[in-house]
Amino acid sequence: MTASDARVAIIGAGLAGSEAALVLAEYGISVDLFEMRPHTMTEAHTSSKPAELVCSNSLKSMELPSAHALLKEELSLLESPLLEIAKMSAVPAGSALAVDRSLFSARVEERIRASSKITLHRKEIQRLPKGYDYTLIATGPLTSSSFSDYLQELFARDNFNFYDAIAPIIDAESIDMSKAFSASRWSDGPGDYINCPFTKKEYDQFYSALLEADEVKRHSFEDAAFFEACLPIEVVARRGYDTLRFGMMKPVGLDHPKTGEKFFAVCQLRQENVHGTAYNMVGFQTRMTFGEQDRVLRMIPGLEEAEFLRHGTIHRNSYLNSPDLLQRDLSFLEYPNLFLAGQLTGNEGYTESICTGHCAAQSIAGRIHNYSLDFPGNVTAIGGVLDHITTPPLKGRYTPTNINFSLLAPPGKKMRKAQRKAFYCDRSLKEMTVWKHEHGSFFKLRNHR
Asked: Where is the MnmG N-terminal domain (predicted)?
């Protein structure tokens, strides 16, 4: 089979599916990319654009040594199309890579439509399409009910669900800057975040209101556990009085830049778009009713007159028990020409989804070009992500996770925390550079942008 003869179907034009389509196109491979929106919408999406970010607008840290930054560095080495577009669409966010989500999605769609190798189909896929040499499932955590039912028929014993929450977005002009201030944690400059500071009395009142707030009426899906790294703020609050101020509302490193005043707690707002007209409430995912969000969140100093451009919501997330189903190249053990990528694998996070979409595309391209491509091991961040979603856990059930250093092979000797992080990053980037060089002949095939 040659690249010009191969036919590949990708189901889902989210982060993983869009990344995979663009990478395959660069290898000269024709792709039919299927996206059900706008004909079938999800509980969380608001547009029909590819790669829409439905939760935070942040792809997390760009600053080494951190696991999130390391994964981005490795994907940069591999020339990830979506990471490139994210950097082009960035808004100020300190050391984090945050994007204007509308601009980001628009640029992804523009890149897809500009490729002669990609055909974007606006239709819902309910079963695996026929007539393709390879198919990649990248429907994400908000898979349609019909396709989800189909997957349960195919992999009934391995299908699990978890549920996620979305933080509110606020109109910048409605923030009272006589009470709030701009600063980044530990920074002496003006800073990229707007900070709403609390006295102890203000925090006590807010905390009590949060505990008493009405939530959206429970449905059967809410019996499932939330993903631990994205808990609704009211769920965090019920774990104890200090859980918020030691977590997403910690005041450490956020003394007032002009007066030096220290605070009991701080709510941070992160810029949402290029123009700075909208701000995301960092860590404030919630399932409170819209009315209660208006009441309780306006108790935050500086947000008394807040205009909510988007309220927080809760939505269904699904994932498969991938370690029992997938080979390391992200193909299914029982169906070698069927691949899986994105959050449906149980990877969690934007960059992680881009990563698995990229790797699945490389695997398919390798098969089509008759090239044996073995991904690097867990001495790299990419290898750590792949190992997590393809290796059964030693104990307990498989659960989603973001990239973190615990997914990487340990140094082999004791080190202090800072030294250990630096070690992980140095080792990973050296290994990835060597790996890319070793597969240079394969990467040279990727010249169809």
From this structure: 8-370
Amino acid (1-letter code) at residue 335 = Y
Residues 134 and 181 grouped into a single domain: no
Q: Quick check: 449 and 21 in contact, CB under 8 A? A: no
DSSP strand pairing (265-271 vs 169-171): unpaired
Q: Is 15 annotated as a binding residue?
A: yes
Residue type, 159: N
Q: What is the pLDDT along the chain (449 residues), one digit of tens a residue?
A: 677 789 999 999 999 999 999 999 999 999 999 999 988 888 778 888 999 998 889 999 999 999 999 999 999 999 999 999 999 999 999 999 999 999 999 999 999 999 999 999 999 999 999 999 999 999 998 888 899 889 888 886 556 666 677 899 999 999 999 999 999 998 766 789 999 999 999 999 999 999 999 887 655 444 455 667 678 999 999 999 999 999 999 999 999 999 999 999 999 999 998 889 889 999 999 989 999 999 999 999 999 999 998 899 877 678 999 999 999 999 999 999 999 999 999 998 999 999 999 999 999 999 999 999 999 999 999 999 999 999 998 767 788 888 999 899 999 888 888 899 999 999 999 999 999 999 999 999 998 55
pTM of the model: 0.84
As given in the structure block, the two tokens for residue 267 are 């709510």
Tokens coding 321? 């028990």
240 assigned binding-site residue = no
Residue that is last in its domain, among 276, 311, 346: 311
Query: Can you give the CATH number for the domain in which 63 is found?
Result: 3.50.50.60
Instruction: Please indicate, yes or no, whether residues 225 and 184 belong to a single structural domain of this protein.
Output: yes
User: Residue 1 falls within a domain, yes or no?
Assistant: no
Q: Which residues constitute the domain of residue 354? A: 7-90+103-164+317-443
16 annotated among ligand-binding-site residues: yes
